[in-house]
From TrEMBL:
GO function terms (MF aspect): ABC-type transporter activity; ATP binding; ATP hydrolysis activity
SMART domains: AAA
Lineage: Bacteria, Pseudomonadati, Pseudomonadota, Gammaproteobacteria, Enterobacterales
GO cellular component, one term: membrane
Protein name stated in the entry: Lipopolysaccharide transport system ATP-binding protein
Organism of this sequence: Thorsellia anophelis DSM 18579
Domain ABC transporter, chain residue ranges per copy: 29-245
Length: 247
């Protein structure tokens, strides 16, 4: 029996639209005088994800398909542990690497080398694991002596090379991607593409949100269609991509 590495059971995520904290003291007094009961905290919310149940196991490469605003990135962030479900249960087994916001955790006022430690620790890597990868990360980023300088002195391309090099430096069990990353100049892009391809084939699980039919058919073996935060279809890549792209 295959071991489930990602499991979502009746997962919903609600986004607060209004709260009593935003109400004026006068409006709260008025509600009390009129006999209207005001609850504490959130009083109105919107479902971003609704009642999602999924089992994703070792060997699965899953495409998340859906129009803009369907909830694809939000679902990835739940899987990454960035968002906690409002309802339901989320279980993951294995080390997750999220390439959703690779610059998250990069600090402008410290050096590139300090950022390697800070970002990698945020990813859950031990100090020893980071030390063992420092040389590889610096070499892959092609930053040279700039690695000792504050990140605020970097160009946008240099920052992205640093962030990408950190995010892809470690062994990954579960790889989460929001579209296929394209980073740096022409030569670095080729190197980055090769690195991503290597990660996809080495990871136990890949979940990729994308609008590209050719990409998901090439990379994935399963797919889901997300509409208004709900999974409408989930199954083999050919069947689901035919429904989404040709239906």
């Amino acid at each position: 029996m295959e071991k489930t590495l990602i499991k979502l059971e009746n997962v919903s995520l609600k986004y607060p639209l209004s709260s009593n904290k935003n109400k004026s003291f006068l409006s709260l007094i008025k509600s009390a005088l009129l006999g209207k009961k005001e609850s504490d905290g959130v009083i109105d919310s919107k479902n971003i994800l609704s009642n999602i149940s999924l089992d994703i196991t070792k060997g699965d490469r899953v495409a998340i398909l859906g129009h803009n605003g369907a909830g694809k990135t939000t679902l990835l962030r739940v899987m990454a542990g960035i968002y906690e479900p409002s309802e339901g249960e989320f279980i993951k087994v294995g080390q997750v690497s999220s390439l959703i916001s690779i610059s998250l955790g990069i600090h402008e006022d410290v050096s590139g080398i300090d950022n390697i430690y800070l970002r990698a620790r945020l990813m859950g890597r031990s100090k020893e694991a980071v030390k063992s990868k420092i040389k590889d990360i610096i070499e892959f980023s092609e930053l040279g002596h700039h690695i000792e300088q504050p990140v605020r002195t970097y160009s946008s391309g240099m920052k992205m090379r640093l962030a990408f090099s950190i995010a892809t430096a470690f062994k990954i069990d579960i790889l989460l991607m929001d579209e296929w990353l394209s980073v740096g100049d022409k030569e670095f892009k080729i190197k980055a593409q090769n690195k991503l391809t290597e990660l996809v084939y080495e990871s136990n699980i890949v979940v990729l949100a994308s609008h590209s039919e050719s990409l998901v058919r090439k990379v994935c073996n399963k797919a889901m269609i997300l509409e208004h935060g709900q999974v409408k279809n989930f199954g083999p890549i050919k069947e689901i991509s035919d429904i989404y792209f040709k239906g």
